[in-house]
């Protein structure tokens, strides 16, 4: 039998301790093991403060683990890398730049210039997110959902293999949130990526993911990893599937019955 391909993202016995402002240690993560296959969509859910964002920062190379190891494509993570795109809760667009310039900003920042091919790609991405007529607008002329679309487009400019998303839709209203979930699925379908998606919404995690990682309260540990067997492409009909409702209920019970350790 051929050997299984190495995971794209590999967290091996990762413990992360911070020093809080009063000098006391805070163990955010304890012995976290997590492996993601290529083009897998995995969500992290768990109580506030259980270390979900810390996991993203470790994968992004913005943080070095106190102990254990984080590997990307079989190499230890030592610094931020180009294969990774990040999307945060807030759009974090630069208000004085146009939408198009915001999308190309990472290239400008890194290389001091924007190539024609980056501009072409930025326009393609704008079209992909349905904002082809908004390239010249300033961010404050766009709705919150549109701004978040722009920041997703920005994270995709260099076509990263890995996309890290930290509650990207939590600041949006419920309708826009559902719309954005389907939009993200469409983008992921068109340009497959390995995605780690942090959310507090069980429904969002179920709709989007291949697997859901349930974390325990601080110090964050992997309490369970749940396979989501719902067929793809996921559509509005998925939300009405009785298995969806059943799984959402089961996960809710699991998350809420977990007491802090
Ligand atoms: N730089 C830091 N210095 C000190 N403590 C930190 C630091 N970063 C995170 N922490 C602490 O580590 C723990 C985990 O934080 P993290 O932001 O990863 O949690 P989270 O699960 O993403 O929370 P939320 O769901 O509320 O966003 C928290 O107790 C937080 O206060």
TrEMBL record:
Per the record, the similarity remark reads: Belongs to the ABC transporter superfamily.
Q: Which Gene3D superfamilies does the annotation name?
A: P-loop containing nucleotide triphosphate hydrolases
**Does the UniProt entry include the keyword Metal-binding?**
no
Q: Which InterPro entries match?
A: AAA+_ATPase (IPR003593), ABC_transporter-like_ATP-bd (IPR003439), ABC_transporter-like_CS (IPR017871), ABC_transporter_ATP-bind (IPR050166), P-loop_NTPase (IPR027417)
Q: What is the top-level taxon of the source organism?
A: Bacteria
For this UniProt record, give its keywords in alphabetical order, as a comma-separated list: ATP-binding, Cell membrane, Membrane, Nucleotide-binding, Transport
Check the record and name the PANTHER family matching this protein.
ALIPHATIC SULFONATES IMPORT ATP-BINDING PROTEIN SSUB, TAURINE IMPORT ATP-BINDING PROTEIN-RELATED
Question: Domain ABC transporter, which positions?
Answer: 9-242
GO molecular function annotations of the record: ATP binding
Question: What protein is this chain from?
Answer: ABC transporter ATP-binding protein
